[in-house]
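Sharing in case it's useful to others searching the archive later.

Someone asked me privately for the predicted structure of DUF3017 domain-containing protein, so I'm posting the question and my answer publicly. Question first, with the sequence:
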Amino acid sequence: MSETTPPVGPDPEVVPSQRRLRLTSVVPVWLLAVVGSVLVLTLTQKDSFAWLLLVFVAAVFVSFVLQLATQTKDGLVERISIASSGSFVVVLVTALILLAR
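And my answer, the predicted structure tokens:
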């Protein structure tokens, strides 16, 4: 192996910053979905599913905004997927609760 060959594997300095970036840009989206879902469960009597859809759309929109605000292209699709998938799970559980009511 020559001296100019870069090491194989993730750069140790990049991995912690990616984790921190993932936490700071994904967790707020999940919290928005949880808070919105709780508000839908507690405050709506009519059209609950329409409001729940609005919560999901808002979470996906905020997900895109936060990811673009980071100005980091590395892992962009992964972070958007994680944020949107987590929001979807929260909304899905809320929809199941609404169906059971």
